[in-house]
Here is the input.
Amino acid sequence: MQFDEIIKNTNYSDSNKPNLLDYQSKYDDFDWYKDGFSKLDWLPDGGLNNAYECVDRHVKNGFGDKTALIWLGKNGEEERYTYSEFKDHSDKFGQVMLDLGMKKSDKVFIFMDRLPELYFAAMGILKAGGVIAPLFSAFGPDPVKDRMLDAGAAYLVTSPDLRKKISPILKDIPTLKNIIIVNKDNRFENPLLDDDLDYSELMKNVNSDTFKLVSTSQYDFSIMHYTSGSTGKPKGVLHRHQAVVQQMLTGNWALELSHGDIYFCTADPGWVTGTSYGMIAPWTNGVTQIIYEGGFSASSWYDIIQKYNVDIWYTAPTAIRLLMRAGEDVVSKYDLTSLKFIGSVGEPLNPEAVVWGERNYKLPIHDNWWQTETGAIMCANYTSTNIKPGSMGRPFPGITMGILNDEFDEIKDETSGILAVRPGWPSQMFAYWKQDDMHNSRFKKGWYITGDQASRDKDGYYWFQGRADDVINTAGHLVGPFEVESALIEHPAVAEAGVIGKPDPIAMEIVKAFVTLNTNYEQTEELRRELIRFAREKLSAGVAPREIDFLETMPKTRSGKIMRRLLKARELGEPEGDISTLEDD
Ligand code: ATP
Ligand code: MG
Here is the structure.
């Protein structure tokens, strides 16, 4: 069935979106090629280019005067760019890269704060056929070196301060040809070292009219992302231009993005959410995107939503838990009624957070599930379907998910097992970079093995249990850390909880929890006992934690995920492994 017919045959919700209520049967014959790729413009010669679909297409179709980007600098600056201006800047940067000799599939690392130039550069590189590899600007020299060496970085785009921070390692990257320095508003004196090139000078010397977009095919490489490092050493994941179709459609159907919306994604491009949904999905859908250079702050975020009338807000559970911690009083000071959709990804969204969101934002928070490897949303709670708090929703049309046993065969509903996806979705990774064995090990009996553990209920909703490695075997029960963590954070004293299995001679493992407390609560023996009691009441005695430790801060990745493997290694006095993505305390 064609996409348009599907929309025609379904009820419209208030927001003029297809009602996906019983979409599972309707979308049985959903076909990415027929129903998805036809929505893209494609290049005249049949090629496909991410950045063309994000930027140039809107200019060609008469939306050039619309605002693509509103940048809010950390010093209170504001800059606005229309789609035409965005095209102009990115064309110029594409020309800069071609003049420097960039070849198709060359990897260009982007290591900088969220400045407009980051996005101009990214789109320019993609239009000129290069592969972008964005990194968190908070990384120190070693994580940058590891990734640049691993990927064989050809170019680096960065800012003067960050360039200085990593100076010692740059000589160790033999493949690196040029370093381009963005000195935004001349924030730094003497910005260039060695043979560095100056972004503004380079841009001054090119003309956007001379740039000819390099034709890429849907199979050409586009983005290289390193995974978050929650379960081990981050893996390099290589994506292709064809991912754009899934990013666009999921942006539209799962996040409700459409032309003219004001959109605020709080993820940094160092994490895949900041590219798939901080660049490609919003701009292919023609929205005005707010880019905020600053970090987390409840009042700044609410202020942005109020001031810019944000329609759609995509964030992560860690941020939502921090907002909950900041309290209801802070929310009540702002008018957030412009919001029509809130989405969350990255970790399981505790049911408590869904309920809190509904109470405070007058909107439920829609959880969706995907991975660096999947490139785009795979499973989601939609506006037109009921949200079951704690569930990550149902597979996106065209995606087949399943729950498998240890032999990789499907098992019945309401049983916990391996979460798997049928391969062949458009934004599927091309490869784990230079890790063929690991790549192959993820495909079994016609399934892609996600590494997560989940169950599916009778209505087809998926319920995340935990990472496969994190599931706890205690006295014969399999316990997912998520349900224990969710129970604990329902206690008013608990801000965050991380749960592990601690080896035990009798029970095999016991459930051990680490918690951080909300302000105004003290780490006392009495509270510890109360929390154990509280968890026992919520959960069965076998599932509730036997031990609880207090922490000042929860170890998390820079993308905001609790690092349970680190909690466990520290508990057992074992080596900490790769901690390149560990957030500073
Ligand atoms: P690494 O693969 O390096 O260990 P990572 O898996 O955290 O790190 P990402 O690709 O950023 O790296 O995250 C994907 C994972 O995040 C998923 O496999 C899942 O475990 C978790 N996740 C993402 N969204 C959700 C969600 N809505 N509910 C539960 N878990 C989620
Ligand atoms: Mg992973």
